[in-house]
Amino acid sequence: MRWLIWLSQHFHLLLLFYSLFTSSSSSSFASTLKPLRSQDQQLALLHFKQLFTFSEFASYDCDLLGYQHSYPKMESWKKGTDFCSWDGVTCDRVKGNLIGFDLSCSWLQGTIPPNSTLFLLSHLQYLNLAFNDFDFSLISSGFGQFTRLRYLNLSGCVFSGQVPLRLLHLSLLASLYLSQNHFVSLETFVVRRLAKNLKMLRELHLDLVDMSSVSLRSLMNFSSSLTTPSLFNCELQGTLPVDIFRLPNLLTLTLTSNIELRGFFPLVNLTSPLRFLDLSYTNISGELPKSIDNLKFLRNLGLHQFNFNGPIIASLGNLTQLTDLDLSDNHFSGEIPSSLSNLKMLLYLGLGYNNLNGSIPSSIGNLTKVTQIFLRSNYFTGQIPSLSELKDLNLIDLRFNNLRDRIPNFLTNLTRLTKVYLSYNQLTSQIDEFQSIVESDEDPILYYDSEKITSFDLQVFIRMATIKEWIMHLFKLPLFLLAYSLFPTLSQSLLCAPSSPIYFAISLKLLHSMVASFESIDWFEGLVREVGTMSEVRFSELETGLSPSNNPVGVEEDTMVSGLKEVRAFLPLGKSVA
């Protein structure tokens, strides 16, 4: 009797489910599907829930990438409660129909078959299943049945196979996200059909989708309404049509890491409301056009490793809305134009790995909002200009230049500065000049990468009250922060825990390399003895046996022993700390 009651209550849903199963291959099914009643929508959701198990690992990338906090949304769904109040469900307030479905980052582990009850929810306008694990299954053609859909997000869902052609039926779609499905591919004929039918499409995110066989010319078939094409690392090949830069409503263009993508930056008629442009790690080359200042609204310009040459044009200073400028790893030459000081909104300046020369202009000090400056590996000469007004600066990298004179004292007054890289220059200073550096609540970070470590090669000034505290902090630093160039044999053990004798041995090696500059300081001599005695004990532990606690990352014994000999050769403990 109970079975008959259940059957009568679910008859409508079962009938629709049967229709879905038998008609899933019919192109006209979406138009003939009758809307579900409110009670049947709830049952369809509960049936959909039964397809999955919940695994935190299924949404691992969601937390890793900072997309949002992941948790099993469907776990709280209970029969007999108002499904419109369920987590991830949005209903039409007037008719009570389910119009929005957000199960992104919901720990879903399983597959979505073509006859899933999900595809009965014909009122859907918004569907987000991003960052779940659908176990390398195909993207179901059933998604093409949501003819009212305006937003579809299937990013990071571990799908595989071809993007289904039936998505062309989503004629109202404004946003399509298929990114981070590494085993999904897209063919030229599908791109052309989608471009022809999806006239409302504004956002197209296909990062990491295999588009190696797609004709680049087919991209120009998309409607002029397209604002945000994102094609990061899609294995695009061939010559990029210049006209893509001239789409009238283009706001964001990301073509990063398509190393087989060729072409030239347009030199004329470069006008659009573009706000974000990243062409880094492509094979596009040429010169930076003077007309780039026509992009008045540009906020992010990423041209890292872009094969540009010639000088950095002064007209870049007219892009006053820029917050991020990355021209690193190109072939730019000449001096930094003083016009860059006009970029008052700039947060990131990357000009490293070029052939720039001359002095670093003092006008850099006018970029009062900047937080990071990368000028390493150029041919800059002269002094480090005053940057005392850059109160938000947290990182500056000036390594591998020809800078001279003393390390400026203003560095001690920049309270947010945590990383300073100055090695491989001709700078001089005494460490005790920096005793006034303000204490920080954060763990200070110490980076060395010179083979000859002296007080003049300091790269990061630790914000401690006294230099003694600063030196003692060497013994609290994670070992992986010490540069590989110092310890070639020990490179495999850079993740040793702080309790490892290797940790203390290498810390002492760093300490000893600085002793020459401090031998006249009484407190320092006592500190060396104190620390040296502690490290000698740790050496003894290492020499008498390698226990699991002393070798937490499973470094081979030969490597540990060789590394020990390397440190011992550098620092004969009995002589240095006696």
Output the strand order for the largest sheet: 13-15-17-19-21-23-25-27
Mean pLDDT rating? 76
Q: Whole-Å distance between the termini?
A: 93 Å
Topology-level CATH name of the domain at 28-185: Leucine-rich repeat, LRR (right-handed beta-alpha superhelix)
Give me the CATH superfamily of the domain at 28-185. Answer: Ribonuclease Inhibitor
List low-confidence stretches. 1-11, 17-32, 431-557, 566-578
The major sheet is characterized as:
8 strands, parallel
Number of helices: 10
User: Which word captures the global form?
Assistant: elongated
Helical coverage, percent range: 10-25%
Radius of gyration: 30 Å
User: Which CATH class of the domain at 28-185 is shown?
Assistant: Alpha Beta
How many runs of DSSP E, i.e. beta strands?
Answer: 28
- Strand percent estimate: 15-25%
CATH architectural label of the domain at 28-185: Alpha-Beta Horseshoe
Q: Class by helix and strand content? A: alpha/beta
Describe the structure.
- The protein has 578 residues and is α/β, with parallel strands linked by helices.
- Among the domains are: 28-185, Ribonuclease Inhibitor (Leucine-rich repeat, LRR (right-handed beta-alpha superhelix), Alpha-Beta Horseshoe), CATH 3.80.10.10; 510-576.
- 19% of the residues lie in helices and 16% in strands.
- It has helices at 2-23, 29-32, 38-49, 60-64, 188-197, 467-472, 501-512, 522-544, 557-570, 573-576; strands spanning 53-54, 89-91, 98-102, 108-109, 126-128, 151-153, 160-162, 175-177, 183-185, 203-205, 228-230, 238-239, 252-254, 261-264, 276-278, 283-285, 300-302, 309-311, 324-326, 331-334, 348-350, 355-359, 372-374, 379-382, 395-397, 402-406, 419-421, 426-428.
- The protein has an eight-stranded parallel sheet, with no helix packed on it.
- The longest helix is centred in the C-terminal third of the chain and has 23 residues, at 522-544.
- Mean pLDDT is 76; it is low at 1-11, 17-32, 431-557 and 566-578.
